[in-house]
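Table 4 source record.
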Amino acid sequence: MLTGCGETGTVPKALAPPRAMTAVALRAVAVTTALDLPVQASVYAWRDFMPALGDSSVAHPLMISVQIRGGVVPPKVLECDAIYVVLADSVFGARPAEQRAGDGPGAIECLMRGGPEWAVGSEIQVIIGVGAGAQRTLIRRETSIDATS
């Protein structure tokens, strides 16, 4: 379904964009999933309003951090292939900008940077493409967009 991203702790190699999917299809993705083991995901979405050096008119795009766990010690290395974000009928899909070790054994964290400029407080659906070995699946989480300052 989707190809894997780069090595843990690195920026992914150049990959084709995630396949196009409709908001209806993405909202139908299950909130629980399994590969060879149950897969759990937690999501944090925010727009960073920390002051930056230079131009203060710089847009503050959506950022998403996803923690994926496949049990205490998964039999295969987990990968994050894609992150889709849905707000009403709008869909934004991207490859993770970074993947690294997550909190705890066998966990990974993947980060999406540069998402759409949707309003803080918006209720969104985050759909993660995840894989282990040759297996691939999607898992969905609901969250709202937070703000940091």
